[in-house]
Amino acid sequence: MIDLTVNGATARVDVDPATPLLYVLRDDLRLHAAKFGCGLGQCGACTVLVDDRPVFACLLPVGAVGTRTVTTVEGLGSAAAPGDVQRAFLHEQAAQCGYCIPGMIARAEGLLRKTVTPIETELRSAMAPSLCRCGTHMRILRAVRRAAVMRGGGVVEPAEPVT
């Protein structure tokens, strides 16, 4: 048996410790926001937060989570009461098909929990591991900038050009 804290609630699952966290979230806990995309940690569709840091849930064995807290997009808000990042994504119409969006939102949430005033290069670096096949990257970046402002910060241009 493995005990987890997911979205503020304790869960006990009877799975092999080597099982990817993504499978436990989807199959055992019925949390379906994080998606299986590639299984290689290259697309970001499976991204969740572990102790406020974005991780690829397809690569993290559930046994390695330990006492750390897991947050999925379901833990950030709901359709009736979306969180800041979710509201910003809706406002900027950042989703087309929506498949990548939970991972993008988790990654953005991780960045904004670290700093509400990231510089533009930090924003782009934080979001780079997540791919959007529909090509909405510019709207996604605008949504993260909007969420930063909603939290009292904002994305700052670097003082000097990045080379």
Secondary-structure map with pairings?
Elements: E1 2-6, E2 9-13, H1 21-28, E3 47-50, E4 53-56, E5 69-71, H2 84-91, H3 101-114, H4 120-127, H5 137-150
Parallel strand pairs: 1-5
Antiparallel strand pairs: 1-2, 3-4, 3-5
Helix pairs in contact: 2-5, 3-4, 3-5
Short description:
With 163 residues, this protein is α+β, with helices and mostly antiparallel strands. The protein is built from 5 helices and 5 strands.
Description:
The protein is an alpha+beta fold and 163 residues long. It has one domain (2-150): Ubiquitin-like (UB roll). 32% of the residues lie in helices and 13% in strands. It has five helices and five strands; from the N terminus they run ββαβββαααα. The chain has helices spanning 21-28, 84-91, 101-114, 120-127, 137-150; strands at residues 2-6, 9-13, 47-50, 53-56, 69-71. Strands 2-1-5-3-4 form a five-stranded mixed beta sheet, sandwiched between helices. A hairpin with a 2-residue loop joins strand 3 (47-50) and strand 4. Helix 2 crosses helix 5 (137-150). The radius of gyration is 16 Å and the shape is globular.
